[in-house]
Amino acid sequence: MAVTIRYPDHPLPGFRLNPFLTLTPMDNRRLILLLVFSFSLVMLWDGWQKQHQPKVEASAAANSTAGVPTPTPSAAGPAAVPGQSVATAAPAAVPAPKASIRTDLLVAEVSALGGDIVRLELTQHKSSEDPARHYVLFDNGEKHVYSAQTGLIGTGLPNHKTLFVLGAENVALKDGEDAVTLRLDAPPTADGVKVAKLITFHRGSYAAEVGYEITNGSGAPLAPHAYFQFTRDGKPAEQPGGFGVQTFTGPAFYSEAEKYQKVAFEDIAAKKAKFVTKSADGWASMVQHYFVAGWAPAEGEREFFANQVSSDLYSAGVIVPVAAIAPGQTGKVSVPLYAGPQEQSRLEKFAKGFDLVVDYGWLTIIAAPLFWALEWLHALTGNWGWAIILVTIGLKALFFPLSAASYKSMAKMKTLGPRLQRMKEQYGDDKMKMQQAMMEMYKREKVNPLGGCLPILIQIPVFIALYWVLLGVVEMRGAPWLGWIQDLSVKDPYYILPLIMGATSLIQTRLNPAPPDPIQAKVMMMMPILFTVMFLWFPAGLVLYWVVNNTLSIAQQWQINRMIAGGAKAAE
User: Fold this and answer.
1) Do residues 280 and 301 lie in contact, with contact meaning Cβ atoms separated by under 8 Å?
2) Which of 83, 218, 376, 458 has a CA between 20 and 30 Å from the CA of residue 270?
């Protein structure tokens, strides 16, 4: 049925001056398109704000133990408060030696200062700026400041500001080996405690073990704590294409009780960050588009933290207790590290809930099965582009009854267009009589004016979920389709797909019933052009989806229009 709304006396933009406004099915379609366009503008504004917002300034740490986390008194006794001596801190002006670790998937650079992993190249992933270079996750300042740091908390014990002695300058995974380990030795403490840091990487894996061997040469039991953290600047990581699309960059924590919690750098700076601080399970991570790094201790008590180190430097991680070490004995503590792409099969194996870093938000319940279908079709075809096309066809088949009902309603409305125009001329400004005549005609012709809109609204969550799947999964990064499309995660270099998408959108618009108002008709014809401009910068995988969906919609709508028009002629 048509909807009549009473407005005040003042005019509204785009409507004629009269006391009643009748919303026809075409008005409903315009409303939906207006909502979509308004949402796009909101995305643009939000992206602009995120890109241009001022950085939060804070005073930099000035002492030699700056950035060393301190457990709360309930988590550690007085002996756990850091007491790093200035003598073990490396002078800032002297660059520390570095060692490299090479496996079949990565190249890690480890600094003698703290044993930090200061650079990590992923050899199976290419740089978005230069395809000839590897993607750099941990970065020592080329684009970002981002490193994996660890340390012990206790009087005189080494932390990430201690200068270690490298056991080797270069270690590489050899044929037949499954793992490679780099050993670093800290200077003995004044009371005779010796500490070695061990970093072990594995073949075919982005997971590693980072830990300590602690030999208690003192005359008293030793029960320190160990911390494992990521230190990173607040600059956003690689972002997907599209107007105003900004993906999350920052710390995230997980526990069974609180589940997945993201923490914005701005909230850390403002001391408003809310996340789980103590738990018997869970992990800490640093998340960015396509990639993630995380610490996942074994079961046991742990304390999570997130701090601002300086004006644009943040640290987040986890503190775990080390089992008491008797005099003359050696104790060990180790925490698994993941640093690599957000490949969901790998994330699920690393830790419970770690796959949640691939965040689809409230549409996860729909997006997760869609990705499973994409992955399954990719296994069959060996190409993500064809997988996208087949998933689009599958969705179109799934919603065929709804789409058919929508197109039938619009086709019937199109056949009634001339009669509606005659009514408009007949009744002039008498809206009440015109509406009564319209309702009688709809009843007589068995047409539901809302029939063209409701099926579309039902499908919107599914299409939005697929949008986020195609936007967020790392599997699309660097994935070719055919011809000129060599990376489905970036824009079409020649803008061919967006232009095809615009052409199909224009054809689809012309198949719809035209609004009686010439100005409104021109606005409707402009919408495909506006969307084409927007899609010029969208990832090619998303545009491919829209092209296939539009093409199938055109075929379906054309066939239904032809059938309805033929039936109308036969009835006449």
Assistant:
1) yes
2) 83
